[in-house]
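Z., the sequence and structure:
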Amino acid sequence: MYKGIYIALSGAVLKHTQMEIISQNLANADTIGYKKDNVSFKDYLIPQDVISYDPDGRAMSDISSFMTDLSGSTHIKTGNPLDIAIEGTGFVALEGNRYTRKGDLKKDSQRYLSTQSDIKVMGNNGPIKLPEGVVQISESGEVSVNGEKVDSIKIMDFKKTEDLTKAGGDMFFSKEKPSEAKAIVKQGYLEKSNVGVVKEMIKMIEMVREFEMFQKAIQCFDEAQGKATNEMGRV
């Protein structure tokens, strides 16, 4: 009896976790460059010494891993010369071994090319400092001001993207040494979030129904256990 409660409870906890992740994805559906999160699960047999010495093959569930979907998304034209979108795989290199796909860049107070949170963008010669003038960014990431080359934005890629971990909402960190990406830089464009709102809403509805199912199962097991205990007390 208790085994059934544990199984249902493990399922309810995981569905709640999954709903939290879906909610986070939906909240960032309009965030530029946001990459949605997913979670995978694993099943395992209930240990005999935990609940019963009579194993029946029933299993509990647990979180296997959290993953970030790094697939690309559509681009929107802004016309802002400091906005960039990456076509293909790769990330804009930032100071501190951080990387991003969020290309709404700016000049900071010291005229360095940076993110909106003042993290400097890295070039081949270090942080990119922009003189006064008209900024042009080529498809290879070369930055020119008034027709004169300043530096090139480092666009890097990773062989094992699963090793990337989020270092803040729009940034990633990796201990792995990156390589130069074969990607196209589009000036005056931004990459949208890769969250599909309709798909996430459907998943949310499914998760709510499954969570309610586990809740009912827990309630049924609890009522059955209470009934069995009361009947045994009368004997």
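The chain is about 25% helix and 30% strand. The chain has two domains: 2-71+195-234, 75-191.

Let me know what you think.
H.
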